[in-house]
Amino acid sequence: MFFENLSGAGKAIAVLTSGGDAQGMNAAVRAVVRMGIYVGAKVYFVHEGYQGMVDGGDNIKEATWESVSSMLQMGGTVIGSARCKDFRMHEGRLKAAHNLVQRGITNLCVIGGDGSLTGANLFREEWSGLLAELVQQGLIDEEASQKYSALHIVGMVGSIDNDFCGTDMTIGTDSALHRIIEVVDAIMTTAQSHQRTFVLEVMGRHCGYLALVSALACGADWVLIPEMPPEDGWEEKMCQKLSATRSRGSRLNIIIVAEGAIDRHGKAITSSIVKDVSTECLKGESKNLESYLQIQHLYLIKYNNNNTNVFVCTCRSFENNLKTYKLLAHRKPESELPQSNFNVAVLNVGAPAAGMNAAVRSAVRVGISEGHKMFAVSDGFEGFYKGQIKEIKWADVGGWTGQGGSLLGTKRTLPAKHIDKIAEQMRKYNINALLVIGGFEAFLGIMELLAARGTYEELCVPMVMVPATVSNNVPGSDLSIGADTALNAITVTCDRIKQSASGTKHRVFIIETMGGYCGYLASVGGLAAGADAAYIFEEPFDIRDLQSNVEHLTEKMKTSIQRGLNSNENYTTDFIYQLYSEEGKGVFDCRKNVLGHMQQGGAPSPFDRNFGTKIAAKAMQWISKKLNESYRKGRVFANTEDSACLLGMRRRALVFQPVVQLRDETDFVHRIPKEQWWLKLRPLMKILAKYKTSYDISDSGQLEHVVLNRPKQSEAMAAI
């Protein structure tokens, strides 16, 4: 919508980063510059944030396509950012308006936190008055005042704190979570070796998002956040929890403290206080670790000790994280647990995906909390029919969240040929419900079990599938567990490849990704890595397209080309590599890289840990509900369509969908959904690579109305 207003000659846009820096700002700047040029507008950099806009001169420079090359993978902000006292004053904003009008700029893209965006909004509100003053002072004429009478502003929230309403995730938050989880993963081995307790303090000012999500992602024993001040006597309760964990055989404890954590009386709870408390209660060594991530935080929320008002935005995502953490972190005594007498089996099916173990841990602990007896099935359906089934306890899944692969073991075997033996095992262990975590094979397996219900009553139980595959090719879900970790692996590899080519300006890389016939990894990975093209099965291509790409690349060097695994049976990675090598002689040389199974391995990303934890918890709650609904005359009997579902993410919401209803949405030959949301992103990748193509820029998206008691203007402006 913003770029639609820019279409046409004579338009100009300025982009600036303000406040603290956040990883991802450069990617946003690059996209703004190239998209602005694509729609025919002049684009200007404003260096050093609002200070540069006030000072003018060389701080406001026209940007070119090439000026944002090689900045996608860089941290911080290459155009600079600074706090600006001058812009808080009317005189400073008047100077800024004059500098913009001199260059014909009436469109601003501001990337920053709450203070930065509040300042931008104030600037817009004052714009007509500022122009009138400039006319009165003789700095501009009346014609210029009329010509530039409207100021359009779009704001992108750049803050690691994730403390802004109206968005579930801000630029920089995911990178900050990665840094935190890297620290936690690194210290866990030491903590286990020496039976230590580590207290980790993370940033966030008065927002506990980083602390809460990192606690959920690493399975922390205790978390302290400002949104949930603990009750009086929290010290004793925390000590009881830590002692109980140690008594069950755990050799470590992780406590995460948000920077702005407070008690019910507004008194700060620091990591030093928590360390002293834990040391005293455990009579052992407690290490204190402050993780500031070397990234400055942004101002948003003002805590006032006099009236105890805290301005906190708790969006749906934050609330879901908090509920899930409470459910998993604190185990109730056996006497307080409900007794359901239901047995629930959990298994992994298909290829391993990072985040599977987090999902299993979540399912087991939620199931036990619901009063069920949980059973783990090793090696998928193959292990099921072989009887590789055993009860799994709360403590058995301790430490699983951060481990990659599948600790249960997983195979691609489908159940159809062994239905009789699986039914026998269901009867032997009195399995009342199934939770299947896996990829397309898991989807097919659930359908085969469903089809056999008419023959085997043992299969007439609630079944739910949670999608987990790096390929992200399961129908009924926009995202699958493991896909984010795979994308990270692709992006990191591409960044390293770019660095290796930094001294060679005439080189093209052909990179093959996984995904089978699904082009998700190639497309989204290509977009994140700044690839020039991504060849996928969903968009057929021929030799003319390849030749066109080669000609395009004669004008651009040091670049990468992404190719999906099964994008074309004839135009293989080797063929494309040889074509580019031959046609590029004298202009560039070519290299190829097949990423292979490295995309499956490694520790899961914070997103996959969090996603796996939350989706499995929701799946277990659904199972509990269905068990109660289908329990009749001393037995569980469920044979309706809605008793066998896939739990998927559809437009930010987790939705249960009967698997039989997903049949028509599926291309079974190529193992992909018939409609895939990410295909809409592909034209954007071509635009950012300077191809001439069409792109729908009129989609304004869905606006979410947010009501929030905001800080006073003077307080918010303090961050500019």
UniProtKB/TrEMBL annotation:
<dbReference type="GO" id="GO:0046872">
    <property type="term" value="F:metal ion binding"/>
</dbReference>
<keyword id="KW-0963">Cytoplasm</keyword>
<dbReference type="InterPro" id="IPR000023">
    <property type="entry name" value="Phosphofructokinase_dom"/>
</dbReference>
<keyword id="KW-0067">ATP-binding</keyword>
<dbReference type="Pfam" id="PF00365">
    <property type="entry name" value="PFK"/>
</dbReference>
<dbReference type="GO" id="GO:0005945">
    <property type="term" value="C:6-phosphofructokinase complex"/>
</dbReference>
<dbReference type="GO" id="GO:0005524">
    <property type="term" value="F:ATP binding"/>
</dbReference>
<dbReference type="GO" id="GO:0006002">
    <property type="term" value="P:fructose 6-phosphate metabolic process"/>
</dbReference>
<dbReference type="InterPro" id="IPR022953">
    <property type="entry name" value="ATP_PFK"/>
</dbReference>
<dbReference type="GO" id="GO:0016208">
    <property type="term" value="F:AMP binding"/>
</dbReference>
<keyword id="KW-0324">Glycolysis</keyword>
<dbReference type="GO" id="GO:0016020">
    <property type="term" value="C:membrane"/>
</dbReference>
<feature type="domain" description="Phosphofructokinase">
    <location>
        <begin position="343"/>
        <end position="623"/>
    </location>
</feature>
<dbReference type="InterPro" id="IPR035966">
    <property type="entry name" value="PKF_sf"/>
</dbReference>
<keyword id="KW-0479">Metal-binding</keyword>
<protein>
    <submittedName>
        <fullName>Phosphofructokinase, platelet a</fullName>
    </submittedName>
</protein>
<keyword id="KW-0808">Transferase</keyword>
<dbReference type="GO" id="GO:0030388">
    <property type="term" value="P:fructose 1,6-bisphosphate metabolic process"/>
</dbReference>
<keyword id="KW-0460">Magnesium</keyword>
<feature type="domain" description="Phosphofructokinase">
    <location>
        <begin position="13"/>
        <end position="276"/>
    </location>
</feature>
<dbReference type="InterPro" id="IPR015912">
    <property type="entry name" value="Phosphofructokinase_CS"/>
</dbReference>
<dbReference type="GO" id="GO:0003872">
    <property type="term" value="F:6-phosphofructokinase activity"/>
</dbReference>
<dbReference type="GO" id="GO:0070095">
    <property type="term" value="F:fructose-6-phosphate binding"/>
</dbReference>
<keyword id="KW-0418">Kinase</keyword>
<dbReference type="GO" id="GO:0042802">
    <property type="term" value="F:identical protein binding"/>
</dbReference>
<dbReference type="GO" id="GO:0048029">
    <property type="term" value="F:monosaccharide binding"/>
</dbReference>
<keyword id="KW-0021">Allosteric enzyme</keyword>
<comment type="pathway">
    <text>Carbohydrate degradation; glycolysis; D-glyceraldehyde 3-phosphate and glycerone phosphate from D-glucose: step 3/4.</text>
</comment>
<keyword id="KW-0547">Nucleotide-binding</keyword>
<dbReference type="GO" id="GO:0061621">
    <property type="term" value="P:canonical glycolysis"/>
</dbReference>
